[in-house]
Amino acid sequence: MLRGGGVALDVVQYERRESRSWPDGYRLSDLSYVNVAVGFRETGEFDRSLADAQAAGWTPHGEPLEIGIFKVMYVDDADGFDVEMLRSRTWADRLTGFAPSMPYAVAEQHIDAPPQAVWDQISDLAGMEAWSGLPVEIDAPTPAGLGTRRRLKVFGRWATEGIVAWEPPNGYGYRLLSGAPLADHHGELNVSEDGSGARVR
């Protein structure tokens, strides 16, 4: 599972390269997702893309359905792989799940160092105090990784966070477990190449 920028991408690697028929009782959700969706903001773009898909041999499930808050169509390739085409109205993003239901903040910083060197720093949870200024204690398991808990002293109080995603050398995710007056707080720290240096987000 790859996570970043509010997107979770489930990557499936086949053990054998040759194609084969779907097994009896196969459901698309057996691959852990219901379908792939391609989004559009303009109706004209949606209509052109649908026409292009049909010209390329994709089979639509009837006529596009338009019900005010969105216009949608499903198309299948020759193997029956299903793709959703969705033109969502911007004003209805919260109703249709295309806008976060809770507030969030994003901060980015360019660092004049190679991405691997930056990852080595930020993934050293025990050494976090050196760059954050916050006293830090690390609970098992160590070395740091998925399931590690860290305690941070903020404004004189200890808060406990748990590492819920660990994807070296690209980033990690954490969730607040206790010790602060917040509910369901979680965050991500991601490192990517940025010119001759790195970008932390």
Write the layout of secondary structure elements.
Layout: E1 2-4, E2 7-9, E3 36-40, H1 43-55, E4 59-60, E5 65-66, E6 70-76, E7 82-88, H2 93-96, E8 109-111, H3 115-122, H4 129-132, E9 136-139, E10 149-154, E11 157-167, E12 171-178, E13 186-194, E14 197-200
Parallel strand pairs: 3-7
Antiparallel strand pairs: 1-2, 4-6, 5-6, 6-7, 8-14, 9-10, 10-11, 11-12, 12-13, 13-14
Task: Tell me the number of strands.
Answer: 14
What is the name of the CATH architecture of the largest domain? 2-Layer Sandwich
Strand content range: 35-45%
Level-1 CATH class name of the largest domain = Alpha Beta
Task: Report the CATH superfamily of the largest domain.
Answer: START domain
Structural class: mainly beta
Q: What's the SSE pattern?
A: EEEHEEEEHEHHEEEEEE
For the sheet with most strands, the description reads: 7 strands, antiparallel
Overall, the morphology is elongated
Query: pLDDT under 50 segments (min length 5)?
Result: none
Distance between the termini: 19 Å
- Computed over alpha carbons, the radius of gyration is 22 Å
Q: What strand line-up does the widest sheet have? A: 8-14-13-12-11-10-9
CATH topology of the largest domain, what is it called?
A: Alpha-D-Glucose-1,6-Bisphosphate, Chain A, domain 4
Individual helix count: 4
